[in-house]
Specification:
By secondary structure, the protein is α+β, with helices and mostly antiparallel strands. 23% of the residues lie in helices and 35% in strands. It is globular and about 45 Å long. 31% of the residues are buried. About 12% of the residues have low confidence.
Length: 191
């Protein structure tokens, strides 16, 4: 039985993004790693990007230092400039068709549906799509890597009051692709 990304999963990702939008912080370490390794995959980070979440089933990076707010739990002010992030999740049995079906359910317009070879040999599917969520027009990318059960979601994190983030995504597409193209895959992690 194939696991399909549900509306709940999409809402969960949207909720995470919304939470991040509220809790973007100027706090946190200033040490920025040049690369990260997760699930035996090493990836280079673009200059000035941050690792802000690392768990067994997810890894998150962003062009802004994202924290949890101040000591009292109050969210920090919105940072200057664009905010974009990449979320890598471990999703066994997820296939590209699951995402195509989900995007169809969301009335998203798929602009790009490409086959990629990461690290010269690891097959992946790239979907770039456009849709409206919570009143914000956005463009995002999902890359499904079935042999590793990894899904990478790259997206802008809209500031409060934003109506259109499609151009922000395009401005950072080379950074998103640079992370994926830098990936060096070790042996698959067995669960």
């Amino acid at each position: 039985m194939q696991r399909r990304p549900s509306r709940l999963a999409v809402r969960r990702v949207s909720a995470v993004v919304a939470l991040l939008a509220v809790t973007l912080a100027a706090c946190g370490g200033t040490d920025q790693p040049a690369s990260v390794e997760w699930r035996n995959v090493e990836m280079d980070l673009p200059d000035q990007w941050f690792l802000f979440e690392e768990e067994a089933d997810r890894l998150s990076i962003s062009n802004q230092d994202i924290g949890i707010g101040d000591v009292a739990g109050e969210p920090n002010e919105w940072p200057e400039g664009d905010v974009v992030a990449m979320f890598f999740t471990y999703e066994p049995n997820t296939r590209p068709d699951d995402w195509r079906e989900l995007l169809e359910q969301l009335d998203a317009e798929i602009e790009t549906d490409n086959q990629l070879r990461l690290d010269g040999e690891v097959p992946a599917t790239q979907l770039i799509y456009r849709y409206e969520t919570e009143g914000v027009l956005t463009r995002e990318m999902v890359v499904v890597i079935p042999s590793r059960a990894i899904v990478a979601l790259a997206q802008p994190v809209p500031p409060p009051g934003s109506a259109d983030q499609t151009e922000v995504f395009l401005a950072y597409l080379d950074d998103f692709m640079g992370v994926l193209e830098s990936a060096v895959f070790g042996a698959p992690v067995l669960d």
